[in-house]
Amino acid sequence: MPPRVSLIVKRMTAVTDARRLEICLRTSEEETRMEAVEHQVRQWLEQVVIGLNLCPFAGTPYRNGQIRISVSQAATEETLLAHLQSELELIDGTPVATVETTLLVISGMLADFDAYNQFLAEVETLLRQGGWEGRYQVASFHPRYRFRGTKEDDACNLTNRSPWPILHVIREASIDKALSDHSEPEAIPERNIRKMRSLSPEERREYFPWLLKAP
Length: 215
Prior knowledge:
By secondary structure, the chain is of the alpha+beta class. It has helices at 3-50, 59-63, 77-92, 113-129, 172-181, 188-198, 201-207; strands spanning 67-72, 101-106, 136-141, 166-171.
């Protein structure tokens, strides 16, 4: 091989090796970030949702490993809907003893609550067109969640505030069973609101640390 060609080949090999290293590092960084996102969600589930008993039905499936947490890196609504569809297909084809419910965590978009709220209309359309309506529903959680008619700083909004935007896929059959097993299911929302409003400023910082970083 002529010296000049050999030099070009060596340079191309060096570029290829650098590119491979860059991809490996980026993949590793993405995996580390996704693991951190999942950890934050699990901490919220353990300390807030289960720890404060906001959902009396969450403890058992969580301890049994039946709550699936899937972190999405989607950057467009189309990609996110495709991810949601795949999660619906997965849970629909999986026994409830294996997957009771799914949390699809949105890590790369919809940080704005109004944009997230508008996206929920697309979610409802997907449920209807996919034939999942009546068998599954999607509950909503968001770092800036705000119930209609409430102020931004109303503590009642904390019941649905999570560290990341989340689409919670729930089996309708599981809801029916949980409600039938609970003595006063209609009292749960009001009880949760009272609990949130009773938290001291220190407790709010402890249970919802991500709110301190929000703009």
